[in-house]
Write a structure and sequence with these properties.
Layout lengths: L3 E5 L5 H7 L5 E5 H16 L6 E8 L3 H9 L6 E5 L4 H14 L3 E5 L12 H11 L3 E3 L5 H10 L4 E5 L10 H4 L4 E4 L1 H4 L4 H19 L8
Parallel strand pairs: 1-2, 1-8, 2-3, 3-4, 4-5, 5-6, 6-7, 7-8
Helix pairs in contact: 3-4
The structure holds 6-hydroxyuridine-5'-phosphate.
Length: 220
């Protein structure tokens, strides 16, 4: 069972995606890909692929009715990512209710992977996550401690983690710190043969996770 979610931020050939998708847990659809292909183009690209979850990642951050309008137009998605910093009332609580009613899942950003994210925001995002009770959390592979903190605070939530590979974190490290899945994009697509790249990084991830077995996160 794969512990990767493949980030699709730019167009990929359907044949390549047919090969990759059975080997990952899910696909994460970026706004860039959607702007390139249009919603119908994305639907056509993903139709019938052998994958457990399609996550739409537009990092929603608006008032509830606007976000509800956006997710309603994207019925092919199983789940959506939204920013936590926008807060609960009038925004995320309503979005969560709306998604629940439509059988869709919500992930909230706990913290981001880039250098400029200010970790002093995390106590606020944690409070919002407690209020809204989303299905899952996005937490950065690039800062071990931050994932561990979210895992400790939310033992049963799915944590998806960007930052492995191109952004510098070793494959498997986020899982070792408590993530459920690692998100990977450019390390698959930016060089050589995507299928081979996925094979190589999956082996690296497995090795790292075996190494960290015995730690709390590794036992998950
Ligand atoms: P890559 O493996 O190419 O660095 O891609 C990471 C993916 O995770 C991108 O789709 C990006 O939008 C997303 N992401 C991130 O890099 N950092 C975050 O904090 C949150 C994200 O969703």
């Amino acid at each position: 069972q794969s512990r990767f979610i493949l980030a699709l931020d730019f167009p990929v050939k359907r044949e390549i995606l047919e090969e990759l998708s059975p080997k990952v847990h899910g696909l994460k659809v970026g706004l860039g890909l959607t702007l390139d292909l249009g919603v119908q183009g994305v639907k056509d690209l993903l139709k019938g692929l052998d994958v457990e979850e399609i996550v739409v990642d537009f990092k929603l951050a608006d008032i509830a009715p606007i976000m509800q309008g956006i997710v309603s137009r994207l019925s092919f998605a199983d789940s959506f990512i939204a920013h936590s910093v926008i807060g609960s009332k009038g925004a995320l609580l309503d979005l969560k209710r709306f998604l629940d009613a439509n059988g869709k899942k919500l992930y909230l950003l706990g913290a981001m992977s880039h250098e400029g994210w200010d970790d002093s925001l995390n106590s606020y995002t944690t409070k919002v996550i407690l209020d809204v009770d989303p299905f899952g959390i996005v937490a950065p592979a690039t800062r071990d401690k931050v994932i561990s903190q979210f895992r400790e605070k939310f033992p049963s939530k799915v944590i998806i983690s960007p930052g492995v590979g191109t952004q510098g974190a070793p494959f498997g490290s986020a899982i070792c710190n408590g993530a459920t899945y690692e998100i990977v994009g450019r390390s698959i697509f930016s060089s050589g043969d995507p299928l081979n790249n996925l094979k190589f990084i999956s082996e690296n991830q497995e090795r790292e996770v075996l190494n960290c077995k015995g730690t709390k996160a590794g036992k998950q």
